[in-house]
Amino acid sequence: MYKDYYRINNQNGNIIIDIKFERYSDFYHSLDNALTNKRDLNPELKEYLELCSLDIPLKKKIELDFSIDEKVDETSEDEIRTSFRKYYDFNFHYEKLKIRNGILNAVLLACISGGLMIAGIVFSDRAMNLPELVRNVITEGLSIGSWVFMWEAVHILSFKTFKNVKRKREYNRYAKADLRFI
Predict the structure, then answer these.
(1) What is the pTM of this model?
(2) Which of 44, 76, 113, 129 is buried deepest, with most CB atoms within 10 A?
């Protein structure tokens, strides 16, 4: 389906995404006046690239062809390449950190769950002298708490981490994309 909307580089099979700007400065966020090459991208460009990424399988490499109406300025083009790579490299590493933290949180939650489960078993064996209602409430509370913590650990590992892994791959693909100016 993506082949209907994007050009394909016949030499290497990469998918080409065409982007048109009037000026080089349109590449950046209009409120970002930083002088360094660590500037924020135009929000519409980011959204467009995210939508394109939904269409194009992650295993496919991409190339970006920028069409600029302004007079050719190689310095601006080099700054844009640098900014683009730094932006997506930063996001790639940030997603890696989120994945690592998610896994650590899931392990911690699983440990808490195991601790609550053990506490429930130990409590039910040793609390024979308490009234049955109190013993049942505490035992059930510990059991339910252990399942809640375990479910959150499973949720983090299966849903959140999967989403972050996918996003990390997208950012890596954009960080390695070839940028050309027409």
Answers:
(1) 0.79
(2) 113
